[in-house]
Specification:
Elements (H helix, E strand, L loop, with lengths): L8 H17 L9 H6 L6 E7 L3 E5 L15 E4 L12 E7 L2 E6 L3 E4 L1
Antiparallel strand pairs: 1-2, 1-4, 2-3, 4-5, 5-6
Length: 115
């Protein structure tokens, strides 16, 4: 049995933008786009801290600073267009690590999530 789904133009535009953002942001092997360049600037390799922001975005940093010291304009940071926690939950802090081809975020209250 076939189903017919009706989409408005704005629904279709939103879906296409979401797919393009997801595809363009993650490269082969589970690394976000720009990850290798980001790691060249890092003292800590394949680990650090993160914070989630509005618009379904997560900021990865090389350092272990969290909370109010987390400044998005610093050089040792990488924006990822993905918030694996509830996208409405902004300001979630924690640590991240890259292992076995995946980036795992850890927050003591919210648990572990994979980008």
């Amino acid at each position: 049995m076939k189903k017919i789904v009706r989409l408005t133009e704005s629904d279709l535009i939103r879906i296409v933008k979401q797919v393009l953002n997801e595809e363009s942001d993650m490269a082969v092997g589970g690394k976000p786009k720009g990850y290798d360049e980001f790691q060249k600037k890092c003292v800590t390799k394949n680990k650090g801290s993160f914070r989630t922001y509005s618009s379904n975005r997560t900021l990865l940093k090389c350092t272990k600073t969290e909370g109010s010291f987390f400044h998005p304009e610093e050089r040792d940071s990488l924006w990822v267009n993905n918030n694996p926690y509830n996208p409405k939950d902004t300001g979630i802090n924690g640590s991240w690590k890259f292992e076995n081809g995946k980036i795992t975020l850890h927050n003591a209250l919210k648990g572990d999530k994979t980008l």
